[in-house]
Amino acid sequence: MTYKRKYYKEIFLKALQEALKQGLISHQGEFEKYISNKQDISNFYVMILSIHSEIFEMVYSDMTDVYYSDKIDYALDSDLDDKGLELGIPRPKATHASVEATFTLNRTQETDVLEPAGVLITTSTGVAYRTVEDLYIPAGDTDATVTALAVNPGTSSIIVENQLTKIESDLSTTESATKVTNSGPSYGGSEGFTDDEYRLLLKYHKEIFQKGNEEAFINYLANFDGIDGYSFIPNWDGSGTLKVILDPGTDYQLNQAYNDLQKLVSQASEDIYMTAPVKVPINVHAVVDVDIDRVNPYSSIEKEEIKSKIISAIRLFIDGGKNIITGEYYKGLSIGEDFIPYKLGAFLDKQIPELKNITFKVPDDYIVITDEEIGATNVITIEMI
Question: What pLDDT score was predicted for residue 232?
């Protein structure tokens, strides 16, 4: 029997019809009036039926919630979480952003410098990261770069380049002038799965537990910290090798993912090749007009400021990062996403209110990006007219 929720009007009408059959009310001529004017019912018995119908409607509401709570297509919030736990697939939580942090000594040391993973580093505003690799600076060198993960998960820990400035941990080296910075922005740092994202994942619960399935790889990478995206290329070398491309694909990430995938996800006979995406340099040369419809044209100083904003927005569109104006994180081009000048123009139109017209000289057409590549900014030239 299929469950069907019932509402007040349907319940009340049915009760009135049954009361008429039993001779408890004399005629049905006023049924419509009873239903439409439930606040002004003079017949005491009919009023009781109306109250009961309202109560039954509330009961049906609760029963509907219970009915849908056990169904993947309709369950929400904690009900969907309970369904996922029942299937053995917890909701992917917020992931931690990652960044490559460079430590620099004031001068070379006579002995190697080795700092175990776990060094706490922060920005001037208190966003904290902790190294996940041992920091090793050989004697005679002054710097080394290691991977660090945000202490707090989610998008709130996303940073742009050169924001890490403080070393909070006590280092074993006596070099007091050790500095830290990040030459590039952070990667990853996503919020937990929404109900719709989680629901889609749960619909493939059978495939997730079958090693070697694409869904098993997707489930693993959904919980992987510090990546902006990934791509799979099956039968990469023509003999069954699966190529997994991670963005950004640092050595630390590739090693961790490879070991975990071999142990937890792939079949024993599978061969996995891990790599970062090949960066395709994108040159942009555009002619920009900001004075259309303006009575007083912008000054040269104002145009230079607008030009700087346009260049930053182009880098944001291609490379991704934190929007300096809104503070929100923008993902940038994904692995395998073609660069299309029209889309860049539409993006700039939303980001730069002063922009009136833009014409792209380079590229003069879209740039094809394969599944093993990702676009990256190279030379950006803006002509202001």
Answer: 94
pLDDT digits (tens, 9 = 90+) for 55-80: 999 999 989 888 888 889 989 999 99
Residue 98 has pLDDT above 70, yes or no: yes
pTM value?
0.77
Q: What is the pLDDT of residue 25?
A: 73
pLDDT at 101 over 80: yes
Reported as a single tens digit per residue, the pLDDT across 148-173 is 999 999 999 999 899 999 999 988 77
By DSSP bridging, strand 272-275 and strand 128-131 are unpaired
